[in-house]
Amino acid sequence: MTIIQLEYLIAVEKYGSFSEAAKNCHVTQPTLSMQIQKLEEELGVKIFKRDKFPIAMTAIGEKIIAQAKQILKEKERINILLQIEKGVFAGTLKVAIIPTVSSYLLPMFLRNFINKFPEVELIIDEVTTDEIINGIHKGNFDIGIIALRSSNGNLITETLYFEPFVAFLPPNHKLMKKNRISQNDLNVNDFLLLKEGHCLREQTLSVCKTDATDWVSKETKVVFESGNLDTLIKLVEQNFGMTLLPYLSLQYIKDRKKLKQIKEFVKPVPKREIGFVYSNTFIKKHLLEALKGEILNVIPDELKENKDGLIIR
Predict the structure, then answer these.
(1) pTM of this prediction?
(2) CA distances (Å), origin 173, targets 167, 189, 205, 255
(3) pLDDT in tens, 142-183
(4) Which residue in 9, 156, 193, 273 has a CA-CA distance of 20 to 30 Å to 203?
(5) Residue 289: count of CB within 10 angstroms of its CB
(6) Nearest to 89 by CA among 97, 75, 79
């Protein structure tokens, strides 16, 4: 039994196909198939039902592959311990991040991180909060960067910063006359929302002190739900409604006219708590700390503590 054979087993289980597994393991299909067959002969059992598509595991195959994953995780743990001992930062870190954070946060720190840790391969996926939590449980992601919720899927959480919300108003909106606005000023039917599944949608409804069932009134002319916050910004400019923006997005708004359409909230300011989520079996803590350090280096000091804020979950 070899480590390579165990890696091939896990690849077949993941991709449900010998050909796809071979492709992702960068070997030929005959090579992969031969190694798995050798292992089955050594163990005296069948691990896969080859007459099924996608390839299915036998009952004993499921147990063997579960154990193989543990063996490879322990092998990785040894490598991580050696890296930490030698002060080496290398390997792959699979990061999942929600869209309303990635658009504004990634450009702030990513280049610095790559330059400082050139041997670390960051694999970044932009997905929703639920997809991140499910992906971490399945081992598809190492860590997630999300707006922390009341329940985070039994994952470990670490706070990065507290981000205020601001309102982006149409040019002719009645709230344009105010210097600052309060939650009580908001009418949920004025809002353009992101699609279901995006946490900013639920946070917007919470700031408006309402729920999704109350959002669309009989007077609503256009019901538009986007998966892209930049699209909502363009529609606000066309007087289709208003939206909430995360504070870090303001650094990318250079047009003075647009900046006048931004209204901050009176205290307590509604905020979201941005942080890491990861499994209690996550072992690349030195890479996590390196990533955390680079992020905090670019976050304004006033966002690192929650002063006079109301955390929206």
Answers:
(1) 0.80
(2) 11, 13, 19, 18
(3) 999 999 998 888 899 999 999 999 999 999 899 999 999 999
(4) 156
(5) 12
(6) 79
* N residues, the chain: 313
Distances from the Cα of 230 to the Cα of 54, 196, 225, angstroms: 39, 17, 12
Q: Which of 100, 104, 140 is nearest to 123 (CA)?
A: 140
Domains of the chain: 3-85 (1.10.10.10), 91-161+277-300 (3.40.190.10), 163-270 (3.40.190.10)
In this structure, the strands spanning 243-246 and 156-168 are antiparallel
Question: By the 8 A CB rule, do 294 and 113 touch?
Answer: yes
Distance CA 278, CA 190 (A): 36
Q: Which residues pair with 294 in a beta bridge?
A: none
Q: What is the 3-state secondary structure (H, E, C) of 58-117?
A: CHHHHHHHHHHHHHHHHHHHHHHHHHHHHCCCCEEEEEEECHHHHHHHHHHHHHHHHHHC
